[in-house]
Design goal:
- Helices cover 42% and strands 21% of the residues.
- The chain contains 5 helices and 5 strands; from the N terminus they run βαβαβαβαβα.
- A 5-stranded parallel β-sheet has the order 3-2-1-4-5, with helices on both faces.
- The mean pLDDT is 92.
């Protein structure tokens, strides 16, 4: 059976922790964040770590996120960012999308 590939989009405290934990469980992780310092923090732990903006469809494709079985949007501060991320992931055909939210209103929208 093929190991799952999980994309972690947003590498703040939560995203970086999830990325490292999954990598330690031998899950193939693609980690992405706009901030290169955050990318560097996880790059020695995960299969692939890239600097990029997950609200940009072409950057997700370049990072190979279209091959992910699951994607976790770990950046819950801005609703529009989460919405664009979900839209792009659905266009890519990612089967399962998990989103961190800031509050119940964001959850309802998502």
């Amino acid at each position: 059976m093929k190991n799952k590939t999980v994309a972690i989009l947003g590498l703040g405290l939560f995203g970086a922790s999830v990325a490292k934990t999954l990598a330690n469980q031998e899950v193939e992780v693609i980690a992405m964040d706009k901030n290169m310092e955050r990318v560097e923090e996880v790059m020695d732990h995960v299969e692939q770590a890239v600097q990029g903006d997950f609200t940009k469809y072409d950057q997700l494709v370049s990072a190979g996120v279209d091959a992910a079985d699951v994607a976790i949007i770990a950046s819950g501060e801005r609703l529009e960012t989460s919405i664009m991320g979900v839209l792009n992931l659905k266009k890519l055909g990612v089967a399962e999308v998990i989103v961190k939210t800031k509050n119940k209103d964001y959850l309802e929208v998502l």
